[in-house]
Automatic annotation (TrEMBL), chains A, B:
PROSITE patterns: HTH_TETR_2
This protein's UniProt keywords: DNA-binding
Gene Ontology MF, one: DNA binding
Protein name: DNA-binding transcriptional regulator, AcrR family
Residues within the DNA-binding region(s): 29-48
Domain HTH tetR-type: 6-66
Upper taxonomic lineage: Bacteria, Pseudomonadati, Bacteroidota, Sphingobacteriia, Sphingobacteriales
């Protein structure tokens, strides 16, 4: 019985992801998702009490995808530079591929649904751990010297995330998400920053 | 005659700055500023068509103060590290001293008055020039090797500004400005980042 419920929940999440990825949060209705699955609206609401809650769950699924894929790439990488490049490019590629899902989180808009806002610190915390792993790789194999790995990872991660602020400053539209083309520009700046930063950790 | 007009305009700006610095934009009225100066409201509106325009002018004055003071400190500094420390601490001290004036710009809120928003790219452009000057100091005196000074300055500046994002991620309140205590924490992170980054530019 629980297994069947899980399967239904997963079906709803997958249908919702397709809808949100195409049309975004605002232009998707619960009725449309129910229709896609030939489910009743009541069944949908049994699993997800409102659209924001459903959206937050889809968002969390996409966040888990980022974490899983980047973790694998970091493990496979030879050396700190390759690990960092893989982390940055994989991360941004998944965000690009799920553009309409990440749009809300990326646009710093004040109407961010609270359920979505709760997912972000979890991603941030996980990413600090990933950058810490990358730095430890560098300490072990590439001669990096790091006083406090977690603090250093945090400074580097925040700097990298801040690249988005730069784009926003330039285009003067603080409340629009970056376009798909601007993602590539952000990635370029992030790669340059990471290279200089990692070089700065060599004694 | 023009000189007299300039003097009046300056008096209004100074009175407005005191009001805004104490009470912020929302809790200050044009009537109060006029009263402080024993000016008529009509005279105030002759110089500044609305409160947002007046606020933007006060904001621009504070921005000019940042630029003037940091430029002097950068010129006086011996070496790239001292110049960078002076730039960061002076900048943040003026923002702290004029907390209620910068609050709006700092809080990423969507209701940023358009007149204020126009001042920000000007500050950003000027700050890129200042960080470029700091880097050139480092190239000349401290053995830094930099391919493209302006691009590198931009990446460093954006990273430093991004430290604010980090605070916001942690406190989970994307739309509140940092508290005065958090400014000191931001400065600490900025100084660590700048040190590693500048070290990374040594060949």
């Amino acid at each position: 019985m629980a297994k069947n419920a899980d399967a239904k929940r997963m079906k709803i999440l997958e249908a919702a992801k397709r809808r949100f990825a195409h049309f975004g949060l605002a232009k998707t209705t619960m009725a449309e998702i129910a229709q896609d699955l030939s489910f009743s609206k009541a069944l949908l609401y049994y699993y997800f009490p409102d659209k924001n809650r459903l959206y937050a769950s889809v968002f969390e699924m996409a966040v888990d995808e980022i974490i899983t894929e980047t973790t694998a790439k970091i493990e496979d990488a030879n050396g700190v530079c390759q690990a960092m490049d893989a982390f940055l490019s994989t991360r941004l590629q998944i965000i690009k591929d799920n553009y309409s899902i990440f749009e809300y989180a990326y646009s710093l808009r004040s109407e961010l649904p609270p359920d979505v806002e709760e997912v972000l610190p979890k991603l941030f915390e996980k990413e600090i751990q990933q950058v810490s792993t990358i730095l430890r790789k560098g300490i072990k194999h590439d001669g990096l010297v790091v006083d406090d790995v977690e603090v250093t990872a945090k400074i580097l991660l925040i700097s990298l995330l801040g690249m988005r602020l730069g784009i926003l400053q330039e285009v003067k539209s603080l409340f629009l998400p970056p376009s798909k083309e601007e993602f590539d520009y952000i990635l370029g700046l992030q790669q340059k920053l990471a290279k200089i930063f990692l070089n700065g950790l060599k004694s």
